[in-house]
User: What shape does this take?
Amino acid sequence: WKKTACIICALNCGLEVQTEGRRIIRIRADKAHPVSQGYLCEKAQRMDNYQNGADRLSSPMRRKADGTYEPIDWDTAIREVSTKLQAVAKAHGGESILYYGGGSQGNHLGATYADNTIKALGIKYRSNALAQEKTGEAWVQGRMIGSGVHCDFEHAEVAVFLGKNPWQSHGFARSRVILKEIQKDPNRTLIVIDPCKTATAEMADYHLAVKPGTDAWCLSAMIAVIVQEGLVASDWLAEHATGLAPVLDTFKAIDVARYANLCGVDEALIRQVSRRIASAKSVSMLEDLGVQMNIHSTLNSYLNRLVWLLTGHYGRQGTNNAFVPLMSLSSTARDNANRKSNDKVGAPKDARPAQWKKSPVTGFKVVMGLIPCNVIPEEILTNHPKRFRAMFIESANPVHSLADSQKMREAMRALDFSVVIDVAMSETAHQADYVLPASSSFEKAEATFFNLELPNNAFHLRQPLFSAKEGTLPEAEIHARLVESITDMGGPDYGVLKAVAKLGLLPFALAFAWQSGRNKRIAKFPSIALYRTLGVDLPKTMSAAASLWGVAQMYVRQQRKAANAAGFGGNPVFAGNRLFKAILGQPSGVVFAKTDYADSWTMVKRAEHKIELWMPEFLPEIQSLDAGLPPIDPAYPFFLSAGERRTETSNTSIRDMSWHKKGSVGTLRLCAEDAATVGCASGEWIKLSTRRGSVTVEVEISDAMQQGHVSLPNGLGLDYVQSDGTTVRKGVSLNELTSTQDRDHFFGTPWHKRVPARIEKIQEKEAA
Ligand SMILES: Nc1nc2c(c(=O)[nH]1)N[C@H]1C(S)=C(S)[C@@H](COP(=O)(O)OP(=O)(O)OC[C@H]3O[C@@H](n4cnc5c(=O)[nH]c(N)nc54)[C@H](O)[C@@H]3O)O[C@H]1N2
Ligand SMILES: Nc1nc2c(c(=O)[nH]1)N[C@H]1C(S)=C(S)[C@@H](COP(=O)(O)OP(=O)(O)OC[C@H]3O[C@@H](n4cnc5c(=O)[nH]c(N)nc54)[C@H](O)[C@@H]3O)O[C@H]1N2
Ligand code: SF4
Ligand SMILES: [Mo]
Assistant: This one.
């Protein structure tokens, strides 16, 4: 049994696997994994479908004039890619190149090296999937608290899920075990706010089945109940928060009965649930795509926080708490840390309007260092002199995953240059000028920075299960070759460090500090330097872990208390070295941070460590709710949830669906009443149209759906080329149906959960 992790969702549960040749043949949970502790779900069994997908790449590919691809050797690929990227940067500046991606659900180590390629090319703009779900939330969180928070459902007396179906999508460790524990404990309460009777909602004590897209009215009504019934935790807030008065002012006037009616939830239920939250010893609340990819996306992130903050639920066991990351997922936070920002108290840099960086064409605000996904085509398909001219894409499939695939294809073809690093010939690779084949996540040292746990937080460096597939390279090597080709960094820069690396980590640390001071290239491209020096002396297949030495050194300096409590205190050089060794030496993962719940207060990065309750930016939107629901377009009377997580979905990392043997997959779910109106039955195919496109799709009548609401799963509709050369497609490619314009006004997050749609029986002519 060899240790590794599942790459399907952000939990990355620890696995033990048996292999035969290049296949993964048996999979079980790793009981020694510090976070998943022997937990896994059924999807983990599909790792071999990822590892041995028939459309995996085994050679760099170059696009020909006719749109087909020819294999080329690595030297040619690196030379041509670096020459062409440099030509764009020279003609239009590094700011004309957009870097997209940098790691999906299972592979973030490559991003530590990509950071150096980005610097070498002078790239100024990035984006990735976080900029179509989490940027609004991150901004609100930054303004109100200033640190990232994570839920503690394990200990919560009351658990609240807002537009989140953790039974299927997970989102916190050992989700199903914890949900069952809450369900069977009579003293604990499960509350779900979701239009659908999901697997989680089925377990709930209270299910608030809002009408699709009406959460802002539901949450406002809950807050109004809390304010009007005197359920506000006034003493606690006096000690811990500022800005209460304008919040009370805003919500005291709201008509609870009317808002309850607008969102379709019984007023009595809203009152009952609000009282339950206010009276509980601890409440944890988690929002996800049901609200984040919906109208009022950013507003809902704010209202969600008001619910648990006004009732005094933060900074204790069982509530939401601040966590200590090993490395931030936000490139802005990383840049600030690198600059040794002394801005310890106060808003994170990207939360301050005055310093806000904006996208070059549409002027959308940059949060977490990312431009909104939904504006990318507009930043390309224009004559604007500052438009993007090139894209560097890695570990992501934006042609498939971003709104409006048609426009995204057009945008990629309009670029002067594009390159994709991927393991498979994805939909995005099919639009790129060059495709560079990466070794799979099981063929190199790999890890993710989705480390959100508390009070103990852990990091898992996985050791490879296989040697690299022939013709592929790990991202670390690809970026090292690109940086060396773009700059004049090379052998002479590495000589001293390479020699010292053989003497041990302490002399290496001293030599690295000294070299960084006198060699600009080492200072500018530290990850590549580490890979080429320290990496050489790591056990052979672990070279790509070298950048983690730098991460560990940074971490112990920035998070002294948490690191010390986890055994990585004292002199930071020694502590960083010990942490790096522990990361390398513990194949199930290592606890790098230990905190107390009370530390959540020192991590409130606002004046006097007080939470800021009032965000005046939201006032106009809150006031606009009073006008009632937006009108429904009679031509598109249904709301399509374009992207439900189901057992058959895994974003697009698993392209080979041959694990799925019987039954339908990728069906459109709708309720019996709607099926009767359209005149269709389960198993029949119907036509689904949005303003952007039409597809035919199999129907599944489901009592989980309410009238007027239909749902399709995410990540399907891939064109998978099987080993015999034939192509299969299962399910619908959702973003052929979505528009980039349906988006939040703050940070452009898409409204994928509420796509206006029409469903019709297929006319015989069309069927033919
Ligand atoms: N099986 C599986 N698990 C996954 C993934 C996967 O591809 N497959 N992907 C992972 C990723 S990247 C992510 S971001 C997470 C996402 O995890 P979730 O956000 O939990 O997943 P979804 O199913 O997209 O949406 C959650 C819920 O939103 C509800 N919803 C729809 N419209 C509304 C609305 O108007 N209001 C409210 N309140 N709810 C609404 C849906 O009914 C659904 O139950 O899942 C992760 N886990
Ligand atoms: N309509 C609609 N659209 C959605 C969603 C929705 O619900 N509805 N969900 C959205 C969400 S929440 C997310 S997170 C995004 C996800 O969308 P993306 O961020 O685009 O991620 P994936 O689809 O997982 O694509 C990951 C790519 O990485 C490649 N890959 C796998 N392993 C490796 C590796 O080791 N190295 C390299 N270089 N590449 C590798 C895979 O082959 C795949 O092409 O989709 C979003 N799109
Ligand atoms: S899909 Fe997520 S919850 Fe299931 S085993 Fe994989 S990482 Fe764990
Ligand atoms: Mo996601």
